[in-house]
User: What shape does this take?
Amino acid sequence: MAIRKLERAIILTTGLIIASSLNAQKVKKGYPLKDRLNSYKQITLTTDTSELSDAERKCIVHLIKAAEHADNIFWMQSYMSKDEALKGIKDPDLKQFIKINYGPWDRLNNDEPFVASVGAKTKGVNFYPDGFDPSQVMEDMKFRVFDPYTVVYYFDPKDAEKYQKMGQMPPPRERFPTLNGKEIEIESYSMVYQKELIPLTEALRAASEAIQEEDPKFAEYLIQRIDALFTNDYIISDISWLNLNSHLDIIIGPIENYEDKLTGSKTSFEAYVLVRDREWGAKLEKYVALLPELQAGLPVEEKYKPSLGPNVSETETVEPTIDENGNVIEEAVGEISEIIEIEGFPPVERPEKPMSQLAVFDAIYYAGDCNSGSKTIAVNLPNHEVIQEYFGTRRSQLKNTMKAKFDEIVVPISEKVIHPSQRKKINFNAFFSNVMFHEVAHGLGIKNLIDNQDQTVREALGATYSAIEECKADVLGLYMVTKLIDMKELDGDLEDFYVTFVASVYRSVRFGASSAHGKANMITFNTLMNSGCLESTNKGMKVDVAKMRSAIESLAAELLILQGDGNVDGVNTMLSGRGKIGDSLKTQIDGLNAANIPVDIVFDQGIRTLGLEKYAEEAADSKGERK
Ligand SMILES: [Zn+2]
Assistant: This one.
């Protein structure tokens, strides 16, 4: 062992000399790269493969291939192409850390650059040109410039020449003037990422063919997703996806807006390849039926909690036809259209009521945005507000990833930070439920402003939206747990859920407060501290359940009102006052870091990990034959 290490060290040194002469990337002086790398615990992503049919195994191979291309696109969005980014890096640790972070900025350490000569990460990454000022976009052009599926560039008249010299057509772009006189252009994702999208969609098509006979609905969804990727219109495939109940699943495309810290509007590519866990899924279904009741019980005035479902009162009512004697000839019937008519939304049939689904999966592959920095353990999609309003959302719990984070991170943390008398309160059932109700809570509350139904809360709050929405989900999630226990619909002791929540806040805020989730956690934690729910003792934190119960209720109301009013000033005050890590918490976090508790997990994942090499070879062979 020692010898091998020495050999590697020598090779490494030589490599670095050559590399430096090529101006390659080196670790920033003094950056604790080794420690940072060791703070990730590697987990094997798998599932019970004996449950998979032959067709499913074949399908998975193609789904993973598609996911790999989505991964490449995320590299391009947040930094540069993966090959370019990793070229010439000899230091295996540095290479690995750049891979984990999809670039030279430490995502779980406030995006600190860890490569020498690399500056701060720009807020608009590659969605916007350097120095771009969103306030200079003209009002009536915002909906185009901030479109979630376009990249923005400065217009450069020399570009046309450049393409002419290369004998190429310039990419199709739309040009806009701005308030400061600079011209900008937008280009759609389908064009910008075409090189990756072609093989990505080929893989989806092969996956669709593989599963066609066994699961035609899933096969059809995959084809619709291909259309979506080429037309930048995801609505139809999102709606189909909501109606799936397939054993296999894939979430793929430009989805979340966390990476755009400049405007919060551009979406990042990602993919999850999933295998449904029907047994656990059944446990959750009963909560869906209770959602309207929970929404109705939210601790705010009526106007901040519209009834869940299509708002029938908005449709015009027809006066009844009355004869000369005053008798009603025709009953007045509310004109409920069968087709949803909203500008920019395709004409689709309106379902009877939105279906909120809760589902449990094992994740077998993560790619792109969801695989960068902190790994997602639950997803609530689609994000489109109109789809959410009329069709609902699916909240997917990724159980294998969740269990790994709980065992490897939450439990060891609780042993350091929670008072011994409450440590036995920490359990996976409570952790699983808290995360689940966080996801459910995204569907509660309000989507459009109270005083301006034409504007969504997301539009009104802009870049601050994500943090407030995540905080709302945390807090309303706890509120729901509380209510369901009161209603005897949920088993367990409220104290378990609260104490487990507090322990898991430590897990999240160790990322720093740069992410939306991190900021959200800080708002909740600081509110709990300020209202005396948490008592800091020298043996750890003690949670006062009764106090926390009322603090949760008032914070829930505060957040719902901020959202409903689209109160940007209020949100900024909240973020600057409570969205940061305080000194005493910082000290505790430093203690955790010194105790070598993993900060997050990374995955050993892919075709080989799942033991599906045979199917990958077959797929490669048949592709060769076709050519
Ligand atoms: Zn969330």
In short: Residues 438, 442, 470, 473 surround zinc ion (CB under 6 Å). The chain is about 50% helix and 15% strand. Residues 125-192 form one domain. Confidence is low (pLDDT under 50) at residues 1-23, 309-320, 331-335.
